[in-house]
Specification:
Elements lengths: L1 H19 L1 H6 L6 H22 L3 H11 L3 H26 L3 H22 L6 H21 L4 H17 L6 H25 L4 H4 L2 H27 L2 H7 L2 H13 L6 H24 L1
Helix pairs in contact: 1-11, 1-13, 3-5, 3-9, 3-11, 5-8, 5-9, 6-7, 6-8, 6-13, 6-14, 7-14
């Protein structure tokens, strides 16, 4: 039991660490358009997971689960919607990192649990307890501060939080293994991604035409950096209680926040501090409520 617990902690921290440092990977691809990176991420994730399924002898399981998913309109539509949703999430994240807005991505994943709670209330008719209501109010204050101080809608933060919360909601409808889910999502989007890369080649603006070997390796490696933390997270979720998994999720945006400020020199103003402060209070209340009820 103790061995499984330690292994679960290792898997979880590894997954969230890899997600946290992901901006470093996308920053190394500066000069490649965000949309081409996104297309490459889908294509090479499909290739990598397909190889994993073949090597681990799980192709039969994949075909069986695929049949189950598309045997009903509800689960089939949910899978298509999940693929589209994660495409938007990945696209927003990559574009924001390239545009020097890592702090906004960090805020998005900090408020993601709060948005998930709201989605549960709206779509699953779940009821909020007292602490959760206060937590939501604190998060709204933090977002409101950014809106007032910056004079613009924090669409990156809310876009990332909203798409990932919706993705999580859709995944509740789809009872399949992690590798099957990743494979289907990438398979559904990859035809569009392949067409886009082909189009870029036709008009001679693709990074694949004359990129140096490092850029080529990084583009192909997008499948590995996408799939590896997801698989680690799956192992973590099987070995640890949900409250422990939920607590560790803040490792990722914290690493991204530190990278944005101390590595890439993004401005962390007093408005940021005030907004993040309210959001951190919100998360503390939310986490305390989760620990009390599980």
């Amino acid at each position: 039991m103790e061995k499984n617990f330690r292994l679960g902690i290792f898997y979880g921290l590894s997954a969230y660490f890899l997600w946290g440092i992901l901006p470093v990977y996308w920053k190394m691809l500066l000069g490649v358009s965000a949309f081409e990176i996104l297309a490459s991420r889908f294509i090479w994730s499909m290739v990598f997971v397909g190889l994993l399924l073949a090597v681990t002898g799980k192709l039969q399981v994949f075909f069986m689960e695929t049949y189950l998913v598309f045997s009903t309109l509800k689960t089939g539509a949910a899978m298509i919607a999940a693929a589209i949703t994660i495409a938007f999430n990945w696209g927003i994240f990559i574009w924001a990192v390239e545009d020097g807005r890592i702090l906004e991505t960090s805020m998005g994943y900090y408020i993601n649990p709060i948005v998930s709670v709201l989605f549960g209330m709206v779509f699953l008719k779940e009821r909020l307890d007292g602490l959760q209501k206060i937590a939501v109010c604190c998060a709204c204050i933090g977002i409101g501060i950014m809106l007032v101080k910056n004079g613009s809608f924090p669409w990156i933060s809310l876009g990332l939080a909203g798409t990932f919360a919706l993705y999580g909601l859709l995944k509740k409808i789809i009872p399949v293994a992690a590798m099957t889910s990743i494979m289907l999502e990438t398979l559904l989007i990859s035809p569009i991604a392949l067409w886009y890369v082909y189009y870029l080649n036709i008009v001679s603006i693709s990074a694949y035409i004359d990129a140096d070997p490092l850029i080529m390796v990084l583009l192909m490696g997008a499948g590995i950096v996408t799939s590896t933390p997801l698989l680690l997270f799956t192992g973590c979720a099987k070995l640890l209680p949900l409250k422990m998994v939920g607590f560790m999720q803040y490792v990722s945006p914290t690493i991204s926040l530190l990278l944005g400020v101390f590595v890439y020199g993004e401005n962390f103003s007093s408005a940021h501090l005030l907004a993040f402060g309210w959001i951190w209070v919100s998360l503390a209340l939310f986490t305390w409520g989760q620990l009390k009820t599980k």
